[in-house]
Amino acid sequence: MFRTTHTVHFDVAADMSPIGNESVDLIVTSPPYPMIAMWDASLAGRDSRTGKLLSEEDGPGAFESMHQQLDPVWRECWRVLREGGFACVNIGDAVRTVRGTFQLYPNHARILSAVLSIGFSPLPAIIWRKPTNAPTKFMGSGMLPAGAYVTLEHEYILILRKGGKRNFRTEEARSLRQRSAIFWEERNQWFSDVWVDLRGTSQELGPGGTRSRSAAFPLELAQRLIYMYSVQGDVVLDPFLGTGTTAAASAMVGRHSAGFELDASLEKAIDAQMDGVVESGRAEVTTRLAAHQFFVQTRLDDGGELKHRNAYYGFRVMTRQERGMVLTLPDSVAKVNGGHVVEQVDHPP
């Protein structure tokens, strides 16, 4: 059994002074999307210049002003991230009509420009194609040429690294890396540059908050990125914590977490997410194991081979790297001053 801690700072992420230099292993976050209307009030409220540019209908000026509020956060992310650590940033571009002109505001490109200037190394990004039920997938003049616009149905997950490859120098570090392996079939699905199997999550917030929608990404998205880019016992940071999705995902898979959130009215939503991690974490592990067993049986039925066995569970696996995998489970959650403590146990063989 081991313990993970999950700390929440209700403060602006541009000043992460409570977080030490190079003390974070992974960042998983989704910032406010500049030029998406639901974020206008928040961004304009923090910078009067942004509000002035919006009122003057200066679209490009407002876009740049909003991103200048995010730039200090990326600099702080660089400071707190360890050498070899990753930052995964979920961001969508915006489309908006300003002064009668409809155009794209490329948020992902502006953030890439900012992080490149800081020193991050961009790796191939993931395009998250979000399913839509819209009966019409165009905007503009419809069937008449030279007037319609393609529908924006995807977001980006930017994958950034600080420095070169992470080193696992000690025996303990190498052991944790072995325990944290993912299944071969998961690797093949997750390490694709287009994700089409994840749906968005409910955006509705209860009464009493400062906004009606959470803008949260799905729990599975955060889990997947944490599995891909961290090992058990790592520290995961979300500088735009929102309703606590990254913290909950970290707790479910045996990582520590820290988060910053400006809106203190979201504390109840964060607590609710954390209160559910034991049930959700156990269900998630059960689903992963069942999916792997189905993969094994299907491969054997098709005449394929699986030459290795996991040393802990005894089931068949495709590669030698999966032999040391041990899945963790959240066993209990306790709220403490400034966050939560989660007791973790190994899933029994």
Structural summary, described in words:
The protein is an alpha/beta fold. It has one domain (2-135, 149-277): Rossmann fold, CATH 3.40.50.150. The protein is 34% helix and 25% strand. The strands form four sheets. It has a ten-stranded mixed sheet, with helices on both faces. β4 (94-98) and β5 (101-105) form a beta hairpin. α1 (40-46) packs across α2 (48-55). The two termini are 15 Å apart. The mean pLDDT is 93.
CATH class: Alpha Beta
What is the count of structural domains? 1
Per CATH, the architecture is 3-Layer(aba) Sandwich
Rg (C-alpha, Å): 21 Å
Distance between the termini: 15 Å
The general outline is globular
Give, in spatial order, the strands making up the sheet with the most strands. 10-6-9-3-2-11-12-1-16-15
Task: Count the E strands.
Answer: 16
Q: How would a textbook summarize the main sheet?
A: 10 strands, mixed
Number of helices: 10
Set down the secondary structure blueprint.
Elements: E1 2-9, E2 24-29, H1 40-46, H2 48-55, H3 59-80, E3 81-91, E4 94-98, E5 101-105, H4 107-118, E6 121-129, E7 138-139, E8 149-150, E9 154-161, H5 171-179, H6 184-190, E10 194-195, H7 219-229, E11 235-238, H8 245-252, E12 256-260, H9 267-275, H10 277-301, E13 308-309, E14 316-317, E15 328-336, E16 339-346
Parallel strand pairs: 1-12, 2-3, 2-11, 6-10, 11-12
Antiparallel strand pairs: 1-16, 3-9, 4-5, 6-9, 7-8, 13-14, 15-16
Helix pairs in contact: 1-2, 2-3, 3-4, 7-8, 8-10
